[in-house]
Structure to design on (202 residues):
C-alpha cells in the first residue's frame, strides 16, 4: 500500500480505518493486524502530520506521483487463515457403496487395459499381486502367480492316495485317527475316504 493509498483510506475513526485496510489486503481483522495498522496510522497522521497536510493540499495526480512510497505490505500482516482441507476417509473405513464409487475409475482403467491387452482381469490382478509382493511376501506372490498362470486360486489341497498312506504310516495313525482329522481339515485339505485307503494298503 502506497502512502497515497494509506492517506486516502485513513479516517478519523481508527477502528474503521483498520477494518478498511484489512479488507483492502484481504487479511483477518485480528488484534495483531489492528495494532500494526494503528502504529502506521499514528506514525503518518501524528508524527508526520505535515506530510499528511501536504498530501491534502495536492491534486489527485500529484498525490499518486509524489506519495507512491510503499508504507505497508501485505506480508507485514497476519494472513487470513485457510480453511482446513477435507480429509478423505481411508478405503478400509468406507461402507460398501462408498468403496464401489471410489473404485469406479480404477475399474474402468483395468477394463480398458484388459481389453487392449486381451488379458482377463483376474490374470492381470494376479500378476500385479505377484509383482508387488515378490520381494516382501513370498506367500502372496505365490498366490498371485497361481492366479496369473491358471486364472483361479486353489484354496484346497488334495492328498493323493500315496501321500495319504505316507502321512498315515509316518504319523502312526489308525483309520479312526484319519477319519477324526478329516472334519478339521476338510476346508483346506482333501483326504481320500477310508475305503480307498484300505484298498490300496492291502
Amino acid at each position: 500500500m502506497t502512502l497515497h493509498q494509506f492517506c486516502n483510506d485513513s479516517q478519523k475513526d481508527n477502528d474503521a480505518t483498520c477494518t478498511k485496510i484489512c479488507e483492502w489486503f484481504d487479511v483477518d481483522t485480528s488484534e495483531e493486524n489492528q495494532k500494526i495498522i494503528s502504529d502506521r496510522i499514528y506514525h503518518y497522521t501524528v508524527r508526520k502530520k505535515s506530510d499528511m497536510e501536504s498530501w491534502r493540499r495536492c491534486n489527485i495526480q500529484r498525490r499518486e506521483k509524489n506519495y507512491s512510497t510503499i508504507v505497508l505490505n501485505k506480508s507485514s500482516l497476519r494472513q487470513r487463515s485457510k480453511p482446513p482441507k477435507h480429509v478423505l476417509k481411508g478405503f478400509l473405513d468406507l461402507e460398501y457403496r462408498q468403496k464401489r464409487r471410489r473404485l469406479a475409475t480404477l475399474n474402468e482403467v483395468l477394463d480398458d487395459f484388459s481389453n487392449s491387452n486381451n488379458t482377463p482381469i483376474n490374470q492381470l490382478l494376479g500378476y500385479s499381486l505377484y509383482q508387488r509382493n515378490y520381494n516382501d511376501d513370498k506367500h502372496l506372490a505365490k498366490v498371485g502367480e497361481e492366479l496369473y498362470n491358471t486364472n483361479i486360486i486353489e484354496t484346497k489341497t488334495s492328498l493323493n492316495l500315496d501321500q495319504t498312506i505316507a502321512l498315515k504310516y509316518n504319523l502312526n495313525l489308525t483309520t479312526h485317527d484319519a477319519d477324526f482329522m478329516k472334519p478339521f481339515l476338510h476346508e483346506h485339505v482333501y483326504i481320500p475316504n477310508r475305503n480307498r485307503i484300505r484298498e490300496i494298503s492291502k
